[in-house]
Design brief:
- This protein folds into four domains: about 80 residues, no CATH class; about 60 residues, no CATH class; about 60 residues, no CATH class; about 70 residues, Double Stranded RNA Binding Domain (2-Layer Sandwich).
- A hairpin with a 2-residue loop joins strand 18 and strand 19.
- It is mainly beta and about 325 residues long.
Length: about 325
């Protein structure tokens, strides 16, 4: 990279820079740290060149005690390693080794939660990673190792036990933000209000990241041009939608009002989602219960029969025990 005379930028400690010519790196100047009173950095000296197009942070500056040909020596830090570098020749302002840069993504540490937005390393594609996350219902990946050597670079190993682990560049990941304000979540029952699935009912079985149609619906029956949500449901029953396409399905409450019915020796108690049958005989009470889940459609007569039969079973077990004594 060439700049015109007098345009070489000035840098200070704390600035972030991007390497444009790594040839100005110093890989063997160990005495630099003692000569400049910077011994605290000596133990982390990488003895390696910087890498073009990579970002580093300036943590200190110093001078060469024998030659001033290149001017200031910059102490650069990346991934807990220290590098030394000039910013070009002092007599040639247009000759530079690095340029100002924006700070990189937030620092990574073990246990941090991130969402992949790209996949720059080999092995698999971003789509394959996202598919695996959807199948396992994972909203984020966890950092296992923040610094793994890979082809001359340090990459991030992230994933979890359910999905597996992958290598990413730090630029491939963005911090996970818990979406507490999501109107819908996996498992919700919904009804379509737009398009070909208007009026159809279904269940949210998947959530897609960074997508205009984030919710994967398994409709209760096939819809026109329906697919399988990439194999997550039956062919023809799947479709991706947004908040505007669906609303929550309010389950009809078929439960009768709380009450008690008494018929000679049999009593039925209706309370919320439970029918209790009590048979009184031999001065003892024998109980049978039928409980409904919130998604069940109430069938009162069937529920009474089931509760009655269970009470009869309890009575007959007691009678059998009496005969065996």
């Amino acid at each position: 990279m060439k700049l015109t005379q007098g345009t070489k930028p000035e840098f200070k400690i704390g600035d972030w820079i991007e390497i444009v010519n790594c040839l100005y790196s110093l890989t063997g100047y160990d005495d630099f740290f003692k000569e400049n009173g910077l011994e605290q950095f000596a133990g982390k000296f990488a003895h390696e060149s910087t890498i073009n197009n990579e970002k580093y942070k300036i943590v200190a500056t110093g001078e060469h005690f024998e030659s001033n040909l290149h001017g200031t020596i910059y102490v650069l830090e990346k991934d807990d390693k220290i590098y030394l570098m000039y910013n070009g020749y002092i007599d040639y302002p247009g000759d530079i080794g690095f340029v100002p840069a924006e700070p990189p993504n937030p620092e990574f540490k073990i246990g941090d939660k991130f969402v992949p937005i790209s996949k720059s390393t080999n092995g698999c594609t971003l789509e394959q990673v996202q598919d695996k996350m959807q199948i396992q219902e994972c909203e984020y990946l966890t950092i296992k190792s923040p610094n793994v050597p890979w082809k001359g670079k340090n990459v991030v190993e992230a994933g979890n036990k359910s999905c597996g682990y992958w290598y990413f560049l730090k630029s491939d990941l963005r911090p996970y933000e818990l979406k507490e304000d999501l109107e819908f979540k996996v498992g919700d029952r919904v009804i379509g209000i737009q398009n070909a699935f208007a009026g159809e009912t279904g269940t949210i079985i998947a959530y897609s990241f960074d997508c205009d149609l984030p919710y994967g619906i398994r409709w209760d029956k096939p819809i026109p041009q329906g697919h399988s949500l990439d194999g997550l449901c039956e062919l023809g029953c799947g479709w991706w939608v947004s908040d505007e396409h669906i609303k929550h399905l309010k389950l009809q409450d078929h439960r009768p009002k709380n009450r008690t019915e008494i018929d000679t020796q049999v009593k039925y108690v209706f309370c919320e989602n439970v029918i209790t049958c009590v048979i009184t005989e031999h001065e003892k009470e024998f109980t049978g219960i039928k409980e409904y889940s919130p998604c069940d459609k109430w069938d009162e007569e069937t529920g009474k029969k089931i509760a009655y039969l269970r009470a009869e079973i309890a009575k007959n077990i007691w009678k059998l025990k009496q005969l065996c004594e």
